[in-house]
Amino acid sequence: MARKAKRNYCKGVYRLLYIYDDKTKFDLVLTHSIDGDPNGHGMNADFVFAEAIDWEQLKKEIKKNKITRAIWFGTGEDNYVMPKDITSGKYMGVIII
Asked: Phi/psi at 65 (nearest 5 deg)?
């Protein structure tokens, strides 16, 4: 992806956690630094917004929780999407394992 989004764990980072055997399901969480490390290498806490959802349900959760920042997924440095990309359907069906 050409765009860059900054991750600051002190402000919180929205993430999709693929923790289920069914890799089409994930949790939407806000990961926040407890010890003040902006890179997220220290102690973190996850605030769960939705559990075991899919991409279609993610659109509803973005609107419900008024998320406007990037949502990170996968393991790479540039794996993130913006809420407008999800609500426009641009990322429907994409699965990162």
From this structure: -95, 5
